[in-house]
Amino acid sequence: MSPKTQLEVIVVGSGFGGIASALRMRAMGYKVTLVEKLNKIGGRAQVFNINGFKHDAGPTVITAPFMFDELFELFDEDRKKYLNFVSLDPWYRFYFHDNTSFDYCRKISDTKKEIAKFSKLDAERYEELLQASKKIFDVGFTKLSDKPFNSFFSMLEQIPSLLKLKSYLTVSQLVKKYFKNAKIQSAFSIHPLLVGGNPFNTTSIYALIHFLERNWGVHFCIGGTGKIIEELKQLMIRNDIKIRVNVNITKVNLDKKSIISVEDQYGNTYKCDKLIFNGDPPTFYDEILRKRKFFQRKKFMPEFLTKYSMGMFVFYFGTKKKYPSVAHHTIWMGKRFKGLLKDIFDKKILTEDFSLYIHRPTATDKSFAPKNCDSFYVLCPVPNLQGKVNWSEEALKLKNRIINALDNTILPNLKDTICNEFWMTPEDFKNNYRSKHGAGFSIAPIFSQSAWFRYHNKDPHLKNLYFAASGSHPGAGIPGVLSSAKVVENVIKNE
Predict the structure, then answer these.
(1) From CA 437, how far away is CA 57, in angstroms rounded?
(2) Are 329 and 233 within one domain?
(3) 243-262 per-position pLDDT tens digit
(4) Hey, which end of the chain has fewer CB within 10 Å, N or C?
């Protein structure tokens, strides 16, 4: 019998990073228990079912399907037997304030035709941006995404590569090197927003997402994100991973500099030889570890200098008619871009205007709504709770402004067809997901909060504490947190 079979790993949090960590630890031979604060697993990848309408609450874009394949292959199973990933086209439709639109398409030739509607010169330079993105991808994703940065020397080794790639540039600065049209610039700069960053100060490392998409496509899982969670749950059950829901871990017990157990809200104790936290790292240090004197939670970045991602207002609703002209993924761009993001990220004020991400899963999967109806999810970037917005008053006002804007543009007569509406604010993210400041993606992906400067995957002070979360290396998004679980696996293998 392997010594590992007698060792207990507790994974706190059941988002994708937590589930992936549980599976990887179990494949290594450890006993694994996964605990979740909510009444079902998935973390932010919840599913809401209301009167025949289904809504994925969290991530909706699948860009690296092979990372799910890996989890099933750990146990000699085939993901395709359980999950059907469908390649979308277009990947995203951008709708601009002047009623023009741009489709970001599966084929390069189609994408270039779409860009040419705005600028023939920009269309000609699109593949140059792709090549630049590939160079960043080859280092930032292929070489570094599953590598730990637990020592400063590991960071120093990569500085020549990062400098060569000009990672000190922002995503916006990189995109502007290739495109001159303002609308095309904004369209190809939005990717950092998908992981909580402002493209005007997010490191250009995140431009690798362009090549990530181009290499594997943009997919949707039939049945939605909830289907992915359910099949991963069954995979865990088949392999004897214990799952506990309604368990809110509130305390850790230490023996010198090792965690020996964790306690939940009822005082129940869970023994552990290793603890993997799939949640917001600052929440762990502030609320669970409770500011023990012997550690610094993050070197070189005191809390007063730490930048957090934006908050999110997420509006869910159904419609009693279909809107076939609306793409599966739509980016509704307001008139302002840079100024709006400055208001959200820097000034932290809620403005009258906005830009929106609109998810219409019924474009691909009819099961998300009753016959001849549509299901929608609208994500509106807003200030996190550092902005002191009174959401009890502002949420309804913002919801109504969004309805008016969509009714006047891509969803005509929405006011007459909308049904089953509800929403989440940064307050809900703080309460439901224990997210510090209600930030949608933990700390922001700026250069000074990346790699070694991000929360480490292994705590520098406690021998058996690990992080697989959006706030730890390599960052947010499904590929990011799945990679984070791989980093933790690699760290533990090498101990």
Answers:
(1) 19
(2) no
(3) 999 999 999 999 988 999 99
(4) N
CA distance 137 to 145: 10
Sheet of strand 31-35: strand arrangement: 242-244, 31-35, 8-12, 274-277, 465-467
Give residue 319's domain range: 311-433
Percent of the chain surpassing pLDDT 90: 80
For 436, phi then psi, to 5°, come to -60, 130
Single out the residue of 280, 211, 197 nearest to residue 447, CA to CA. 197
**Which of 402, 433, 464 is where one domain is finished?**
433
User: Which residue in the block uniquely carries the two structure tokens 């995957």?
Assistant: 457
> Does residue 440 fall inside a structural domain?
no
Q: How far is CA 219 from CA 45, 82, 222, 375, 378, in A?
A: 16, 15, 10, 18, 19
CA dist., res. 334 & res. 354, Å (int):
6
DSSP per-residue letters across 303-341: GGG--B--EEEEEEEEESS--TTS-SEEEE--S-SHHHH
Same domain membership, residue 485 and residue 457: yes
Same domain for 169 and 273, yes or no, is no
User: What does the pLDDT average to over 385-396?
Assistant: 97
Residue 400: inside a domain: yes
Q: Are residue 229 and residue 209 in the same domain, yes or no? A: no
Total tally of structural domains belonging to the chain:
3
Nearest CA to 35 out of 338, 376, 271, 379 is that of 271
Higher pLDDT, 298 or 362: 362
Query: How many residues does this entry show for the chain?
Result: 495
Q: Inform me whether the pLDDT recorded for 300 exceeds 60.
A: no
Both tokens of residue 494?
Answer: 């090498």
- When mean pLDDT is compared over 129-138, 308-317, 473-482, the highest value belongs to 308-317
**Is 212 part of a structural domain of the chain?**
yes
Q: Looking at 263-410, list the stretches that DSSP marks H as alpha helix, in order from N- to C-terminal side.
A: 281-283, 338-342, 391-407
DSSP annotation string for 364-394: T-GGGSSTT-EEEEEEEEE--GGG---HHHH
pLDDT for the residue 158 = 65
Residue 479 zone, left/alpha/beta (φ > 0; ψ -120 to 50; rest): alpha
Both 184 and 282 in one domain: the answer is no
Tell whether the model's pLDDT for residue 377 goes beyond 80. yes
Q: Are strands 47-50 and 31-35 parallel, antiparallel or unpaired?
A: unpaired
Q: Which residue has the tokens 């006993």?
A: 31
pLDDT for res 451? 75
We report the CATH number of the domain holding residue 479 as 3.50.50.60
Instruction: Determine the Cα–Cα distance for residues 122 and 303; give it in Å rounded to an integer.
Output: 41
Residue 443 belongs to some domain of the structure: no
Contact present, 60 and 361 (Cβ < 8 Å): yes
CB 58 within 8 A of CB 295: no
